[in-house]
Specification:
47% helix; 13 helices; alpha/beta; 295 residues; 10% strand
């Protein structure tokens, strides 16, 4: 299936209120926050270890320095102030997806939601999920740095089902019934590996799932395809000759990708009768579904 065909399916999911974004740490790099690898490297320096297992390194730090120093260390890399929201996050919120799920602990997406005055309930634990009232949610499935309930070390992953049972089941249900786009994840991201297992174990009859990448790797693409995720390699879709490679190029590509999804389908093309006109207006006003008076 061509890139254009995939994009049309994503746009259709958006129009049907069935579009969900899954956001990884790569989406926070352009605001100056560290990704997993950078954070782990800092922990390794303090531990003076050659260990390579990310989850084990975080666990070793916790055991060596205790919970207080462990949380303090991680928090030091995630300032809550002076975060300048980038266009990628604004575009993400402007798309008004049904849900935004993230494994990030920072508050970047919340700031973008506030800036755009969008209506999302923020869910950081099971208790907040129970008390949510909005149909649209920002689900921080791995906790929040300010709350301190982050999922990072080995024990957190092993005990996730016990600590976040409602959030886990809710996210699994979303994966089974919506078109999902993964942004900000690398091929080897441990979080993505856990999530792909959830997708693989869900119903075989489910909407498509996509992973955004800007680097071709046929072997990795085959792996994710086998787990029910189509890899969208857009490294050649948006030429940008004046920009050097690296994070700036990735940011530009994500912006172009989100802008393409944001382009509204012409609901009023090829209208032949009054019923089609009514349906066109109804589809247009679906974006205001939370404002009952409009509908």
């Amino acid at each position: 299936m061509s890139y254009k065909s995939h994009l049309e399916r994503i746009q259709e999911a958006k129009n049907d209120n069935k579009l969900v974004f899954f956001i990884g740490s790569g989406m926070s790099k352009n605001v100056g926050l560290p990704d997993w690898g950078e954070l782990i490297d800092e922990l390794k320096k303090d531990l003076n270890t050659t260990e390579e297992d990310y989850l084990k390194i975080a666990q070793l730090y916790f055991l060596e320095f205790g919970e207080y120093e462990y949380i303090k260390k991680v928090k030091s890399f995630f300032p809550s102030e002076n975060i300048v929201i980038q266009n990628t996050h604004s575009l993400l919120v402007k798309l008004f997806p049904q849900n935004i799920i993230t494994t990030n602990w920072d508050i970047v997406i919340e700031k973008a939601i506030d800036n755009e005055m969008a209506l999302y309930d923020v869910v950081r634990n099971d208790s907040e999920l129970i008390n949510t009232t909005s149909n649209r949610k920002l689900i921080k499935m791995h906790g929040d740095i300010e709350v301190g309930n982050i999922v990072f070390k080995e024990d957190d992953y092993l005990e996730y089902s016990q600590k976040f049972p409602l959030v886990e089941n809710y996210v699994k249900s979303i994966l089974s019934t919506n078109t999902v786009i993964f942004l900000g994840y690398s091929y080897n991201d441990i979080n993505l590996k856990y999530i792909t297992k959830w997708i693989q174990s869900s119903s075989k009859v489910r909407p498509p799932a996509y992973m955004f990448v800007s680097k071709e790797d046929k072997i990795q693409e085959k792996y994710f395809n086998n787990h029910g995720i189509s890899v969208l390699n857009i490294s050649n879709k948006y030429p940008f000759s004046n920009m050097p490679s690296g994070e700036k190029k990735k940011t530009f590509e994500i912006e172009c990708f989100l802008k393409n999804i944001l382009k509204a389908r012409n609901n009023f093309a090829n209208i032949h009768d009054e019923l089609e006109l009514v349906n066109a207006f109804y589809n247009l006003f679906q974006n205001f579904e939370q404002f009952d008076i409009v509908l």
